[in-house]
Write a sequence for this structure.
């Protein structure tokens, strides 16, 4: 399996994804878009992972590499590749699938619960997801559910927190991959966004010692295994 990930800023990294990839002995490559690194062709990878970032998907004038990135994501979906998007990455996938991405009513920054949908509760493949889970958020924009996508989760302030499209494309508005160091780096680099709000926590609340990073990382691993399993079934059925 050849995994390629797109990194938008130095401080939003793979986190626990790196551990899982190493355990699987997969080939891993990356594009650091913030350094104007060239993108691969769609034939150079089996799985595309799009990480988060503080920019918005419609800021092409400020971040011109967004144009080519969006095209690559569309191509990956059309070519039936595995595609995972986290936060900004999920918004970029939604956009590639024709859904509207827009500024949400509230920013969500910190640890807040999501609830899973009836579709999750009826799915054997998603039985690892509890009906409610406290996860880490850092976003202001959100998206409408893409056509033919299955809504997996929502929160009090955000109707669409996660979706699955064609069994091989997963968008997660929240961060399951983060560890404490990753959250600390996001706080250091995004301090200006920590303006008091209903769904904005202080840095102290976000870094509270009892935050269960292990739990969300484990759920992330289950998502990765689920996508890998779908890919193996696709290959076997060809």
């Amino acid at each position: 399996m050849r995994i390629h990930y797109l990194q938008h800023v130095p401080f939003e990294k793979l986190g626990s994804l790196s551990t899982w990839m190493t355990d699987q002995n997969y080939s891993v490559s990356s594009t650091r878009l913030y350094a104007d690194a060239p993108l691969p062709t769609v034939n150079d990878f089996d799985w595309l992972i799009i990480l988060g970032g503080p920019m918005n998907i419609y800021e092409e004038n400020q971040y011109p590499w967004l144009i080519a990135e969006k095209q690559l994501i569309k191509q990956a979906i059309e070519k039936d590749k595995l595609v995972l998007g986290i936060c900004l990455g999920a918004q970029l996938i939604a956009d590639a699938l024709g859904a509207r991405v827009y500024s949400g009513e509230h920013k969500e920054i910190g640890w807040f619960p999501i609830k899973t949908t009836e579709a999750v509760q009826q799915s054997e493949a998603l039985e690892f997801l509890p009906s409610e889970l406290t996860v880490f958020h850092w976003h202001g924009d959100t998206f409408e559910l893409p056509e033919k996508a299955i809504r997996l989760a929502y929160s009090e302030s955000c109707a669409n927190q996660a979706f699955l499209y064609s069994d091989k494309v997963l968008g997660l508005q929240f961060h399951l991959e983060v560890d404490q160091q990753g959250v600390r780096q996001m706080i250091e680099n995004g301090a200006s966004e920590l303006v008091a709000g209903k769904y904005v926590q202080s840095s102290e609340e976000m870094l509270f010692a009892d935050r269960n990073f292990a739990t969300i990382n484990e759920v992330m691993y289950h998502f990765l295994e689920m996508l890998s399993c779908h890919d193996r079934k696709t290959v076997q059925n060809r």
Residues 41 and 225 are 25 Å apart (CA to CA).
